[in-house]
Amino acid sequence: MPEPWGLPEVVAQVWPDTVVQRCIIHLLDNTFRYASKRDWGEVARDIKPVYTAPSEQAALDAFAEFSDKWEKRYPAIVRLWSDAWAEMVPFLPFGTETRTVVCTTNAIESINARLRRAANARGHLPNETAA
Predict the structure, then answer these.
(1) Which domain holds residue 26?
(2) Quick check: pTM over 0.85?
(3) End-to-end Cα, the chain, rounded Å
(4) What are the C-alpha distances in Å from 64 to residues 41, 47, 50, 129?
């Protein structure tokens, strides 16, 4: 059976030195999918020190505290963050201004959506270069 390929694997295949950063906003959205709505505020407050930590070690310590508190109630959330850890921490060494830009793909997605909308509004483009 072939091995599943996701974005990190495909990017590493083409550009071996590339670091793939997981979108923190999407990670948080997925976190809240596993939590009861009444716990959202507390979960958000408890997970924030993980992705705002000044270093990977501080993030690990904060995640250990988060896990101790929430793993019994929401094991899927702890597993989600554990599985995404390697792609979540690359931006931690950067300053807060840089983190604001690289912690989410929403700006990139917004540009792509606008380009798609513009292309669709103008009709079919004859080829990829024209787009």
Answers:
(1) 19-83+91-121
(2) no
(3) 37
(4) 19, 10, 9, 49
